[in-house]
Every structure is written in structure tokens, then in C-alpha cells.
Amino acid sequence: MIQYPQQTELNGDYIRKKIEEFILEDLPSGDITTAGTVNNSSKSTAVIQAQDDLVFAGAMIVPYFFDESFNIEMLQQDGDFVKNGTILFKVSGKTSHILSVERVMLNLLQRLSGIATMTRKYVEIAKLYGVKILDTRKTTPGLRLFEKYAVTVGGGTNHRLDLSSGILIKDNHIKAAGSIKKAIEIIRQINYDKPVEVEVENFEELQEGLSAGADGFLLDNMSPEKIIKAVEIIRMFPNGEQLFVEASGGINLSNLKAYVSTGVNAISTGAITHSVKAANIHLEFL
């Protein structure tokens, strides 16, 4: 069964480097408003509070916005579901620094918490059927590791991280190679020592993929009724019970229930990363 590495944590050096990049984008020549209005020796305490019901994602990221002179009191952890009004954490230290990193920090926390919250909604429906909710590579450039992490925080499962980490033969690969059979033959000759998954849109393509020895299938843009039939065909094939089957294409919260009972192992959806609304989180000085 195909399984990719999961982004269940983030490397500290990576977080630090990305935050430096984000802050430089927002403060190319410093925070001139804060520099002109706030005493450099001033210290404050701020609370960061949820203004939506949300699944919090970003607890492990927050400390990298501050140095050791700050006191950070984390009151919620990644994966916690919190109600509107809940204080997520408190931070005490140099006023000017808190003001200067506020927007970048909130932007990131809101984006990741929005992804985690949306993912949790999908997962709550799918888990009753033992179906995994997978993300896709439809992520924000420069934020992929953060967004993949937020998916796991929400209870979802990461599909391949990038084009180097897994083989998924899609429609344009098939057209370029000439057929599913030829595409699989070519990639097997290279011997990447990775499972080969094939995107199929109909039963004819499915049969060709089975005969060619695919390790898994992405059933693309099929109705629930067709997916049920496709899964039946796959499971009846020799060793078919071991093949990975995912459904994708136009699946969202409004129709998810019709797909989770089709017998697939997983449902992949770009909606949990590319179409989420940022969670509402704000910072306020005490």
C-alpha cells in the first residue's frame, strides 16, 4: 500500500530561515512607524486570541519569532480545537519587536490554522469509513512544508511532498508516453525503486493499468457509482487487495459523504490547502 513520509514536525533551522525571509519582506528598511512612536526600552505583554472556532496550528512555530529575552506562555498546542475567544498564547518582552513581527506572525498562524480547521472537517466525515484525507501539491509557493504540516495537525495525511518523492503518472504523462502501458514500462526500466501510481478516468484505462502492473490508482473525476465499480474491479484482480486506491476531482465538503463509502483507501483534495479561509486570530496588548 502506497504511503508517503508525513510532515508531522518542522525542522527548527528551516522555520528560522523562512521567518527571517518573511520578516525581511515586511521590514526591508525597518518598522518606521514603531521606531517613531515606541520607546526602544518599552516592554509589554500581549495575548494572541482566536476570533473563530478553529483548530490551532503554529504552536511550534511561534517561538521562532522571538529570542530568549521574551517569555512565551503557550496555552494551546497544535491540533487543539478551540472556541472563539480562547487565548492561544501570551508573549512578554520588547514592545517594538512584538509590534514589528505581529502581522507576519498572525498571517502565518491564520493561514495554517485555516488549513488545519478545514482538514479536520473532512477527516471527521471520512474517518467513520476508514478513509484517509490526502492533500495535494496545490500549495502556496514557499509555504509547502508549513501547509503540509498544517494538514497533519488537522488529522489529514500527506500525499507526495514534491515531484521527486513519488511517482504519479497523470493524463499528460500518458499522452506524452503514448499509453499507460508504455509509461509504466519506461518508468520501470529506470528503476526508481518507488511504487507507481496511475491516474485513470475510465474502466478501459483502469484495466490497462492493472495489466501493466501499477501499484495504485487515482480515480479521477469519476462519480461515486463508477468508483464503486472501479474498486470492485481492482480488488478482484490478482493481488488487488494490496493496491492503493484514491479518488480525486471535484470532491468537497458538500459531496464528500457520497465518496467515503465507495471502498477507496483515500480521497485527495486540493481544497484543504488552496481554497481555505484563513482563521481569524488577533493580538492585543494587555
Secondary structure layout:
Elements: H1 12-26, H2 32-37, E1 43-50, E2 54-55, E3 71-74, E4 81-82, E5 87-94, H3 95-126, E6 132-134, H4 144-153, E7 167-169, H5 171-177, H6 180-190, E8 196-200, H7 203-212, E9 216-220, H8 224-236, E10 244-248, H9 256-260, E11 266-268, H10 271-274, E12 281-285
Parallel strand pairs: 6-11, 7-8, 8-9, 9-10, 10-11
Antiparallel strand pairs: 1-5, 1-12, 2-4, 3-5
Task: Describe it.
It contains ten helices and twelve strands. It has 286 residues and is of the alpha/beta class. It folds into two domains: 12-120 and 277-285, Aldehyde Oxidoreductase, domain 3, CATH 3.90.1170; 123-274, Alpha-Beta Barrel (TIM Barrel). The strands form three sheets. Strands 6-11-10-9-8-7 form a six-stranded parallel β-sheet. It has a four-stranded antiparallel β-sheet with strand order 3-5-1-12, with helices on one face. A two-stranded antiparallel sheet has the order 2-4. α8 links the parallel β9 (216-220) and β10. The mean pLDDT is 97.
Radius of gyration: 23 Å
Number of domains: 2
Relative strand content: 15-25%
The helix/strand series, from N terminus to C terminus, equals: HHEEEEEHEHEHHEHEHEHEHE
The best one-word shape is: elongated
Per CATH, the superfamily of the largest domain is Aldolase class I
> Can you name the CATH architecture of the largest domain?
Alpha-Beta Barrel
Q: Roughly what is the average pLDDT, rounded to an integer?
A: 97
Count every beta strand, where a strand is a DSSP E run of 2 or more residues.
12
Biggest β-sheet description: 6 strands, parallel
